Amino acid sequence: MRLLTAFAVGAFLLDQVSKVGVLWGLNLAERGAVEVFPPFLRFQMAWNRGINFGLFANHTEFGRFFLIAVAFGVLTAVLWWVRGSKVRPIAKIFAGLLVGGALGNIVDRLIYGAVVDFLNISCCGIGNPYAFNIADAAIFIGALGLALSGPDTGQKPKTPKSNKTP
Predict the structure, then answer these.
(1) Does 166 reside within a domain?
(2) How many Cβ atoms from other residues are within 10 Å of residue 118's Cβ?
(3) For this structure, is 117 an active site residue?
(4) Which of 16, 31, 53, 138 is the most buried (most CB within 10 A)?
(5) Nearest alpha carbon to residue 67 among 76, 80, 58
(6) 3-state class of 39 per DSSP?
(7) Partners of 119 in the beta sheet?
(8) How many domains does the chain have?
């Protein structure tokens, strides 16, 4: 669980520090957008009251706290699964990323009423209208990694026997 906790804390802190930096350091809420590495990366302010891409966005307190409850449910299920199963260390890392990202977005909803999204990446002449944050990336990487990392079978990989005699 130490590995999971370390990655959860790391993802959470990186997310929250980045949001404080763009909100208060760059004053992005007033500026709206800042070109960082044109045309690939810009900081573009977006208050996300829904889930990915603003889906299920609403401006009600019920919706806000419902999404907080769903996020708590997901991270609780992930923690319960990791704790009760024999998983590989890499799965603990992915679970930590998912948990830390979920906590980062929960804190946003509690403090600001919405998730702070600001990263906008475009490429190859195709403009991307959507923004995301470090927590979103951690959740995505964590969920994908958990899906792809199988259970720990407890078996060591077989080493080929050598035909050479000493």
Answers:
(1) no
(2) 23
(3) yes
(4) 138
(5) 58
(6) coil
(7) 43, 132
(8) 1
Q: Residue 71 has which token pair?
A: 């996020």
User: Which DSSP category does 88 fall into?
Assistant: -
In a domain, 154, yes or no: no
Q: Which two tokens stand for residue 156?
A: 């060591």
In a domain, 7, yes or no: yes
* Structural Rg of the chain based on CA atoms: 20
Q: Please tell me the pTM assigned to this model.
A: 0.82
The whole domain housing 121 covers 2-35+45-148
- Of the candidates 15, 108, 117, 152, the residue annotated as catalytic is 117
In a domain, 26, yes or no: yes
Alpha helix ranges (H) inside the chain: 2-20, 28-31, 61-84, 89-112, 134-148
Q: Is the peptide bond before 39 cis (omega within 30 degrees of 0)?
A: yes
Distant-in-sequence, close-in-space partners of 22: CB < 8 Å, separation ≥ 6: 28, 43, 45, 116, 118
The secondary structure of residue 63, as a DSSP letter, is H
